[in-house]
Amino acid sequence: MADVIGVAWATQWVRASAAAVGEHRMELIDLDRAIGDGDHGENLDRGFKAVLVKLDNPDTAPPETVGDVFKLVATTLMSTVGGAAGPLYGTAYLRAAKAADGATVDAAGVADLLDAAVGGIVARGKAEVGDKTMVDAWTPAAAAAREVADGGGTATQALRAAATAARTGAESTDPLVARKGRASYLGERAIGHRDPGAQSSALLLEVAADAAESAESAQ
């Protein structure tokens, strides 16, 4: 496995994210209808389609760093995505952009950018693990990536570990009572429903790992 991943991976992650969100749009809408406004899938789909438009615009300067890609995602989501998802995801990508300011990132860099993303989400949403939010997916994902990095693993391995942890984290929101967001008004009626933000987070991190593995297989 490659020790590092770069701008090509980050760009492919964006494209894969747009495709995955489009494919799972109705699933995310249905999850959000159960405990929220019902617009999570629609908002994310619109946001990532807008990111692709900017990415493919010939007037857009080609990204030179991984952070450049993330900054494009951040600013576009913040300006096009309504509800809580825009500010939360936008801040996550913006913080990640600052952490990934080089042309490549290694496993430690993956852990750093995920840690930064978590910090942005927490700062914006004031949530913590157990509140039935996207934090329940991102926090274990960052911890898993750090464990791989500390153990001498590769960037791709760190991303796969993060994706697996995020999926488990999203599933862990099913039995929780929400303590943040619109779902918190439902009390125990939110039990049994997965948090849509945690689900979309797991989806995005899964395609991040897929993009890294795909890049390796093409080498």
Overview of the molecule:
Helix content is 68%, strand content 2%. The protein contains nine helices and two strands; from the N terminus they run βαααααβαααα. Strands 1-2 form a two-stranded antiparallel sheet. The N and C termini lie close together (10 Å).
Summarize this, please?
With 219 residues, this protein is mainly alpha-helical. The chain is 68% helix and 2% strand.
Q: What is the element layout, followed by pairings?
A:
Elements: E1 5-6, H1 7-23, H2 25-35, H3 40-55, H4 66-80, H5 85-99, E2 104-105, H6 107-125, H7 135-150, H8 155-171, H9 196-217
Antiparallel strand pairs: 1-2
Helix pairs in contact: 1-3, 1-4, 1-9, 2-3, 2-9, 3-4, 4-5, 5-6, 6-7, 6-8, 7-8, 7-9, 8-9
Find the CATH topology. Serine Threonine Protein Phosphatase 5, Tetratricopeptide repeat
Output the number of helix runs.
Answer: 9
Summing up helix and strand content along with how strands pair, one would put the structural category as mainly alpha
The dominant shape is globular
Give, in order, the helices and strands: EHHHHHEHHHH
Number of domains: 1
User: Main beta sheet: strand number and arrangement?
Assistant: 2 strands, antiparallel
Features:
9 helices; mainly alpha; 2 strands; 68% helix
